[in-house]
Design brief:
The chain is α/β, with parallel strands linked by helices. It is 46% helix and 11% strand. The chain contains 28 helices and 16 strands. The strands form four sheets. The chain has a six-stranded parallel β-sheet, with helices on both faces. Strands 11-16-15-12-14-13 form a six-stranded parallel β-sheet, with helices on both faces. Strand 2, helix 4 and strand 3 form a beta-alpha-beta unit. Helix 5 (87-102) packs across helix 10 (191-204). The longest helix has 22 residues, at 435-456. The radius of gyration is 28 Å and the shape is globular. The termini are far apart.
Amino acid sequence: MDARRVLEGLDPEQRAVAEAVRGPVCVLAGAGTGKTRAITHRIAYAVLTGALQPQNVLAVTFTARAAGELRGRLRALGAPGVQARTFHAAAYKQLLYFWPRLVGGEPPRLIESKFALLGDAARACGLSLGRTELREAAGEIEWAKVTQTRPEDYPAAVAKSVRRPGGDVVDIARLYVMYEELRRERNLLDFEGMLELTAAMLAEFPEMQREVRGQYRAFVVDEYQDVNPLQKLLLAQWLGDRRELCVVGDPSQTIYSFTGATPDYLLGFTREFPEAVVVKLVRDYRSTPQVVGLANEVLKDAPGRLELLAQRPAGPVPVFTGHDNELDEAQDVARRAAKLVEAGVPAREIAVLFRINAQSEAFEQAFADAGVPYVLRGAERFFERPAVREAVVRLRGAARSGGDAELDGLGLIRQVRAVLAGCGFTDRPPEGRGPVREKWESLAALAQLAEDMAIAEPEAGLARFVAELEERAAAQHAPPLEGVTLASLHAAKGLEWDAVFLAGLADGTLPIVYAETPEQVEEERRLLYVGITRAREHLFLSWAAARSPGQRATRGISRFLDGVAPGSATPLPPRMERPAKLVRARGPQPCRVCGRSLLRAVEKKLGRCETCPAEVDEALLEALKEWRADAAEVQRVPAYVVFTDATLQAIAERKPANRAELAAIGGVGAVKLERYEGAVLALCRGETPGEIYVAPP
């Protein structure tokens, strides 16, 4: 390909990036502004003009899918020899290559999950941790490792930061020490250790340093706002004292600081490289002016933001809808999505995004009831699903045994469907939801991919299709499933759809209730910005005043939409501010008997270790249970919905004398406090409770 053709079709800012073939270069790229296009054209232009040799370039990104997309685009632009990898893939390749020569013996075995090893470490420390506690501990250890925090420094580092660990910091530090000991004993390596070990070997072995730096002389790093200190350390070892570095990122899309990622390296790039060329990409080619305008408004007061300039024709105005409860909200979203599908919007071009994964259940049920297919993103990897693995094996076998000839010369679409039929695929989807429906959707995605390839490459046969599947599997680049995507806002980063529903935009959910510092709240604002900018044309924003039908309407629209949503200058309804005297102290909760930090949920409710002795007022406990049974019958809910057994046990042990003491008991939230305070405190005083609370209709 002629180098000049690579520059065709680029806007002025993208062309400036492409022509800046020597580093250092910093590209500040807003959402939908074509950053991948700009950096791939830059690499291709540098290669085609001879400024760089393809084998000397390493493009680094954060996901295998993004790396695969970079490689595909570079091949199409005439630069197939450029390496595009994730940080981890590049490091692991170097580690395996140099280990036999420089260290000797078997290299450490890479583990993808810390759970099993953490379970052994917990038992060795005498800690009884469930899966949730292990998951939280794994996250803390990962954060400590990427920020280069040693176990002995972990408690102090947490105290200095704004983190809120789910367990006792001393226990997590002990677990961290034992985890590392067991990992070394068993010759295992986790992802963080892999980056650290590769960086250490580069620093220690001049031979490795010479070879790596001799091959890779220019670097391009995508999503630079998400780089953590450990990745920056490795990048510094790759780069040495050279200046051939191009970075691209958007500080307004910094949403992973809880993992150790920091935008400081992007924002401070010109301090590190004063001579750097800085280019800003602000022309948004993804979204309509209406969507872009809302995104700009949400971030209007954020420092360092990039104000986007919409390039698409006008589209529909974003729709804001408040609901009485989350069930109504989910059903309304499903109805609106169904109407979009009826109007011609493909289901795979629609997404419902929410703050936390736990919110998905209501939408799963609503879409199933409405008969609208859906896909839950973030579940099992597509190419690891049994149905997909079986289908790929059968397709590979059909291609090897003759493919076109054996199948009477049918076109690719009919060939693939014939093979998939042997796996149970039918033209019509099965009823309902569950494993059978999930299998059908997986096979339907393969059939759709065959249709897409037949259109793009009319001469393609089974062998070409299987090669495409294998390449996608290596890059974890799953085809879009034919269903509405349900995903968290974090999981939606880097994706886009024709229509996006942003659900659950109530204050306390977005921003999430535990976002306490100004920095944490602003990251929640950026999360909303990321959600808005996923939409190309249709955008729906909704919230619910109560969690369940019958509960009081205590929640209002997110503060980020106050004055932005129509009529929200006077919030609908006003947000409930948590009374200052009910805010619990931060940090691990100590046992009120022995003082040990409490980790298990039941212990936190009791306020003590399960094994510690405690005096319980048996008469009060019996009275509480009788009152709870009456309250549950009146409200027509299970008894545990009023209060769990553990909460009643804690009340009977601690006998709260006032509102603040009752609020301090685990399981007594603001809503339950408002409903049941009078009755419970009366029982604790030995009095007869008043009228049983009945939730409003």
